[in-house]
UniProtKB/TrEMBL annotation:
It comes from Oncorhynchus kisutch (Coho salmon). This is Uncharacterized protein. It comes from the Eukaryota.
Length: 359
């Protein structure tokens, strides 16, 4: 009557069919299994399973369930209940119904599907074919993620592995990824991307976006939103719409295009084909700058490298770039500044092939 399952700690439980009652039939309310469990089913009550073996075909009904399993898990199905899964093994074909689910995985996850519920996924293994419905989702994944799809919900993705074909609907999304990201698409939402890997074909809709990249970025497109880009790797084909953009890049930047917005570029690498529209731009570049074009805006260039083909429209320009006197400030406030004086007299160790401004 106290703990009938303790004597079975070193055996194989091929079938465990129990109906937990709160202080009724004498069964142990918090059993600790150190062997294998197959075909686990529980009734309408709270159940906490701390199992260090393998679990197959776990099914839970209307109850509060906590599974702390360090083995493999296959075919887990949970219905109307509050479930907390802390797994260190593999998970295959996990399906959860209308409930609040918390998954803490350290193994592989395949074919994870969750219905209308509040879901928290903390996965340190691989995730394949993860699909979540209308719910609140938190994904903390240190493995690979393939074909991740989330519906109308609030989503928080903290991923340290690769992410392929990530699609999120109308929701709040937070992506903290240390791996590669391919084909990332987010709808109307607030998105925060903190990536340490490569980024390819990143597209974000009407939202507030914060991008902190330490890897390569290719084909980055963001819609009407507030964007903060902190990139320490290479960025290719960066395009941003009507928004507020802050670029802090320590790598190379190629084909950077920004629309009507406020842009702050702090770049320590090479910049090629930089184009900014009607906006406020601040460029702090310690590398080479080629083909820099800025239209109606206020521009501040603090460049310690070479500058080629600098063109600025109706704006205020400040160039700090003397290698001998890096703290000396030069203002080109009037057109006669470069008509009556040679650019070499300004002690600039750069080559300004074209500077056409109208103050």
């Amino acid at each position: 009557q106290t703990a009938p399952v303790r004597v079975l700690s070193k055996c194989l439980l091929t079938c465990l069919d129990v109906s937990w009652q709160s202080g009724g039939d004498g069964h142990c309310e918090s059993p600790f299994f150190r062997c294998d469990v197959h075909n686990l089913q529980e009734g309408r009550d709270g159940l906490c399973l701390c199992i260090r073996g393998y679990v197959h075909n776990i099914q839970v009904g209307r109850s509060r369930v906590c599974l702390c399993i360090r083995g493999d898990v296959h075919n887990i199905q949970v219905r109307r209940s509050r479930i907390c899964l802390c797994l260190t093994g593999d998970v295959h074909n996990l399906q959860v119904g209308r409930c609040r689910v918390c998954l803490c995985f350290t193994g592989d996850v395949h074919n994870l599907q969750v219905g209308r519920s509040l879901i928290c996924l903390c996965v340190s293994g691989d995730v394949l074919n993860l699909q979540v419905g209308r719910c609140w989702v938190c994904l903390c994944v240190s493995g690979d993620v393939l074909n991740l799809q989330v519906g109308r919900c609030r989503v928080c993705l903290c991923v340290r592995g690769d992410v392929l074909n990530l699609q999120v609907g109308i929701c709040w999304v937070c992506l903290c990824v240390s791996g590669d990201v391919l084909n990332l698409q987010v709808g109307r939402c607030r998105v925060c991307l903190c990536l340490t890997g490569d980024v390819h074909n990143l597209q974000v809709g009407r939202c507030r976006v914060c991008l902190c990249f330490t890897g390569d970025g290719h084909n980055l497109q963001v819609g009407r939103s507030l964007i903060c880009l902190c990139v320490s790797g290479d960025v290719l084909n960066l395009q941003v719409g009507r928004c507020w953009v802050c670029l802090c890049v320590s790598g190379d930047v190629l084909n950077l295009q920004v629309g009507r917005c406020r842009v702050c570029l702090c770049v320590r690498g090479d910049v090629l084909n930089l184009q900014v529209g009607i906006c406020w731009v601040c460029l702090c570049v310690s590398g080479d700058v080629l083909n820099l074009q800025v239209e109606r805006s206020l521009i501040c260039l603090c460049v310690r490298g070479d500058v080629y083909n600098l063109e600025v429209g109706r704006s205020r320009v400040c160039v700090m770039g003397d290698n001998n006197n890096p703290d000396e400030l030069y203002y080109y406030k009037e057109p006669r500044c470069h008509q009556n004086r040679h650019l070499s007299e300004c002690s600039l160790s750069v080559l300004l092939t074209c500077l056409d401004v109208s103050w």
